[in-house]
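Anyone? Bumping this.
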Amino acid sequence: MPGPIWVHGELTPDGSLAKISTEVATLARDVGATSKRDVVGVIVGSDPKGAATELARYVPRVLAITEPATADHAAATIVGERLAELIEREQPDYVFTGAGPEGRDVAGVVGALTGWGVLVNAIAVRWEDGPVVDMSVFGGKLTTTSRFAGERGIVTVRPNVVTAEPASATGKVEAAAVSGALKLPLVKVVDRIAADDVAAPIEEARIIVSGGRGVGGPDGFGVVQELAAALGGAVGATRAAVDAGWIPYAQQIGQTGKIVKPALYLALGISGAIQHKVGMQTADTIVAVNRDPDAPIAEFADLFVVGDLFEVAPAILAELRARAG
Amino acid sequence: MRIVVLVKPVPDTASSGERLRPDDWRLDRAAVPAVVNANDEYALEAALKLTEAHGGEVVLLSMAPPSAPETMRKALAMGAASGMLVTDPALGGADVPTTVGVLSAALRDMEYDLLLAGADTSDGGGGVVPAGVAAQLGLPYLSYAAKIEPDEAARTVRVRRISPTGFDVLEAPMPALVVCTQALGEPRYPSLKGIMSARGKELTTKALGDVAGAEAGAPTTAVLAATAPPPRAATRVIRGPADEAAREVVAFLVERRIV
Amino acid sequence: MASSSPAPEPRPSPTYRLTEDQAALRDAVRILADERIAPRAAEIDRTAEFPWDVKELLASHDILGLPFSEAYGGLGGELLTVCLAIEQISRACATSGLILAVQELGSLPLILAGSDEQRQRWFPDLAAGKTLIAFALTEAEAGSDVAAARTRARRDGDDWVLDGAKRFISQGSVADLITVFAATNEDPETPRHDRLTCFVVEKDMAGFNVERIEHKMGIRGSPTAELSFRGVRVPDANRVGDEGEGFAIAMRTLDRSRPAIAAQAVGIAQGALEVAAAYARDRKQFGKPIAEFQMIAAMLADMDAQTEAARQLLYKACVEIDAGAPDAGRWSAMCKLVAGDTAMRVTTDAVQVLGGYGYIDEFPVERMMRDAKITQLYEGTQQIQRLVIARALTARA
């Protein structure tokens, strides 16, 4: 009897459903429809009901497992262990999760406990007698297509490759229990520090306005932020800007930062060196502003404006406001 | 302190010759010069800083092709004391379960207070291996560290973990596995003395059979094809006064339904 | 008694490839130069300030230890390795390359003729890059004509008292130690070449002054100083080699320091070549990259071939000189002659390839062309190099 496809619902620090899980759920639902497999959401948390209710807007059935230990311990190991126990009991065939930090940690633990294979960083999943997963590698230079050798596996899905769409009917939430002592070592959370300038995870943003060396300093990022706000997007940066201390590392895009695939990547004062390029070149639309007509980014941008970002960005802002007003 | 750092040689992203072998879609690792995975360098730097502060030594562990020693020499030149490489033709194209299994088996024979790993690898790694290794070895798992503070007397380690809202401060007994981020600090350039002494440092090579409990399991995944992504349309270049450029940009965004 | 450097070990057989260690060192210096020095090069030229940060960078990565033997905390002192490093640094910034070249130049009299006590006293800090050393031979009236030096050293008890002035001394204003060549014998019967003696002057010695710093065409970040000595009391323990041995020490020094300048020149040429080649590939005129036009392609080809030829001659010269070749002077002069002229030609052509863009400071080639010129002038002008070579040739004929 073919097993269902599970969607692991990830939680944000305040206990609500992570945006990426709504995308993964939408993807799983599409794959479920083609494969005629059931799709079930699974959430493990200290207070999972709210997130489970939200996830139920996307899939017909959600298992909500209350696990108090996640309240003050590092969650991924606990969630992974409980998921593995549930997998043993409920026998799904596939588990889809997000490819961000939280999702990949869980995928790693579940993979080790079940022995299942893992296909990572999916940018597309279709069904052909099993999931067929596309993955973008080498900074976007190649796309590989892979499948599982057997009939089970874990897929981690990149943010922004699917637009989240609630199902036509809301699903049911079922409380599920997993008991028994946790065997993997627990890591205590002794403190949580809120940072003042934390933005939403940048990999999830649909629009990213990014600043590079050309921005010149932390004050220069003001116009980057304004433009991002006007477009409803997130602020990104190159390594040069982060190293110079103009913007936090969480917003760094590139080989040693985040890989993003937004609908729009607007690059201000960014040359487009390879280490940055691999982080953003698969964006749907790339617009760049740079004083240097020979900047490498001119070669792969869709639209390249030769100009001073401190003139062009405010002009774009003015134009946007004129249209809105 | 004894710290083991997981390192992986990967193709140098800055070169453009990465390719997959057409017969089995495995990465042709001979095609391009290999460098230490960028994220692993941060882990290595963190390890070196810790042993400089607390005394002790840093040991590298890698599962990689036979050409790996040259890349590992670069990591040794940064200051690691020695390295272990597990290499075997049977491990070519190893999937996640095999990689986790082999690394865990190798680590069972090693002693360490901390096991550090980079967040993911630039050659297609999805950052799932460290969590798997921790689960298999029963090690406390602390990921996305921006700061690592061991307390040797208490045999615990405190880690500042980057979270979506700021930082979580985690604490766990040692030995523990910590996944490192760039926030830990820029990797050092090897000094010339480091480069010259790297040659004399011990780099042990082990085949699969030499590592108790390690095996190359049947592959759980298979690559079917590799294609270049569709080329982007030619770039449209706009010059001229800023206000005209801005009008064209916004019109373009409207046309693409982004605004 | 001065001891000369120990006889080098016999090399097994000629090899025309770098060893793994040499290649690893070269690559490490290249990465450092590309990532940390190149971004500073334009600013160093514009502000004409000595780049202490680059000096610290070189010191902390053991690069300034290259000229010194391991006994003093250095990395062995092999000439080829020193030159590999200078070449890579100079690719990015000629001023920065000179920091290592001058550290070697100033130390050579001590390496060749210093006592163990002197080396023990000064080399550890020099190898660690904690102190800098300069070489003061040239005077206003004694450039090519070295033996005409008029700075005097007069014996007074256990000391020598120095009076005079030196001109065009690279890094003379930032050095902690200066190897100075002074006339200790003014007897007209004494042959010209036996009149000079070498001393180490320490910068805090009374009577030693930096009179001025020159404003130069190129290598603008490297301070070129006029130094004056007014009754500077130097202990005999600071005398290097025998009285009257100074000229010979200077000539043997130049045999080993000229390759360093050749390395700087090869580096400058290579840097300019890379900029020109990248530009020619990206710049499109008349519908195609200018690299596809034959006149440009021919220029680039000649630039590459000539730079490579200069490089190979340099590497060979280093190996010969380190092996104790009796014609070290010829090798030294040849590699410096060819490299200097090549650097000038290649950088000029690089500006040409870039056209108008080559003339403005948005691109580094105009700086590289200005930097290249000095390699035809210092450590012996090209004309002096030719004299050395011609004399060696006709002596053999």
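Late reply, but here is one note on the structure posted above: Chain C touches chain A through two residues (CB under 8 Å).
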